[in-house]
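User: Quick one: structure for sequence A, then sequence B.

Assistant: Sequence A:
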Amino acid sequence: MGRISDGVGARRRRKRRLVLALVLTLSLVTALAVTGGIGSAASSVASGSSAVKRIVSGASARPTSGNSSASTARNVAAVSGNSSALAQYGNKVVICHHPSSDPTKWVTISVPQSAVKAHLRHGDTLGPCKPLAKTRLKVSVTPPSATLTSGIPVNIVIVTKNAGKAVAYHVITCVSLPKGITVVNGAGGVARKGRYCWRTKVLGVRASVTFRFQIRGDARLAGKVNLVAAARAFNAPRVGDASKLTVLPGKITGSGGYTG
């Protein structure tokens, strides 16, 4: 009698397991039918249909290929329309922002698509900012050599030229003053730490700028020194030239000016 009861119990347990498996299978089939199935979801991501318009990855945007779950997991969907994905991620456009006409101050930013037209109207451009083209300068000092009698001013001319093929920006031309050499007249220059400098915001291709000033030797210097001129720009390396000075003893007349 005990064996019969055990057999009936086992059959009932097998029947319950079969019913449970059938219910789970039906639930899975129903879910796939509602979502369009695994194949449909993968196809939507790969082709960019309906909700997903483009798959991008960071700054170097590239569309994904195939149905690689690892590749898709690293990317963010950029979508259009009023979908929930748009609300979550937004839809950014990379532009070069021009806060002024000075290209050294332009900066690459990302803005919403709704703001692109406004940025383009005030001069911004689509895509990241491009690096400024490099150029080269030439600087010369005239006379290349001079003899000074202490206390008597001598005229010096410095010419900075853009000898390259691109516009030069923020050009700085300086003359380094040896100890005992004084600038007595240097219109437009600024004295700082033993140098006398001039600034030029923009220097066109093949254009040049000339600086004229006077220097005076100090009798205590009496000897040979170099008056060194140098020029550089935001997009051009430093170049230099020098004038060889011979300073003779003499009488110091007046003070004033800027002494190295």
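Sequence B:
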Amino acid sequence: MTRSEFVKRLILAIGIFFAVLLMIYAFQILLLIFAGCLLAVFLTGLAGFLEKHLKLPEELSLILVIILIILLIGSGTWFFGQEIATQVDKFGESLRQAYNAFIAQVQQTTWGSQLIKQATTGVSDSSGFKLLSKVSDIFTTTVGTLFDFFVIVFLGLFLAFEHRMYTKGFRGIFPERHREKVTELFSHVSRVLRWWMFGQFMYMLAIGVLSTLGLWIMRVPLALSLGIFAMLLSFIPYLGTILSAVPAMLIALTISNQMALYVLILYVIIHMIDAYLLAPLIQLEAISLPPALTISAQILLAYLAGGLGLLLATPLTAVVIVLVQVLYIRNVLGENVILIGQHHPDEQV
């Protein structure tokens, strides 16, 4: 081994060592950066669509996208804000009443009384509801803090407006012979994230609309809030869809056990429609990830980084799969591979 080769390997080993330290001690910060990158990919994807179809300059398209998003949020707040605020105010109290009604019914049975007694040994009576009530504001806690939210937004905006400069700068740290491959890898990752966000948005919209309509037709209280809650939670694949049914069933219990059963059937039907009808149609253009791998990533990242890790587990899984497919399967093994999000044989890389 020459001295030059030894120095290169030493630098590589030191780099890997500090990268591992960074992952361990700054994992939460890295997740915030990734969330900012995800927002930038979302904005540039929409801007690219306008740029392509309206023949607008890139920066003007991006500004137009931001204005449209602000107008959409503002109009939604104008038309539905008061109703949502009213229902949100009632949401916590309704959950408390629903929880108390559920506990009262369970305590009427022998096995339920024993189970609750064992579960609440050494715990205050209100602890169960306190744990349950956290479900209603899961999206507030998953972001972490208001500061984290602003970091994500401003980082995403800066990356979106200057994404070419940052991409060029990142390419510059690699040798000339590898820069084309780095650019190609960036393109693959951005495309996969855009298609994932498209599919997830369509899925969330379907869950929200179907849940709200179904609960409204069944005259379940707070149908709009429960529908929005179901839509937001469905951003977390699999786990979120299960959690979204819990508040609706508890509130339905305040009406009758029969109503709670009907709500459960409603959510099962909604998710069957999404799984067997809407999801295959969406995945014709979007991406589909292995369920076991996705759930495992959610559990791991939720343990390591809490709510933010749970939110970002699926897109991170998609990125890791692309990196493995491109860097290992294609470049190391030398095999052609159809990347996730590609649906035709001629799209092999």
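The CA atoms of residues 30 and 91 lie 34 Å apart. Confidence is low (pLDDT under 50) at residues 122-144, 344-349.

User: Thanks, that's what I needed.
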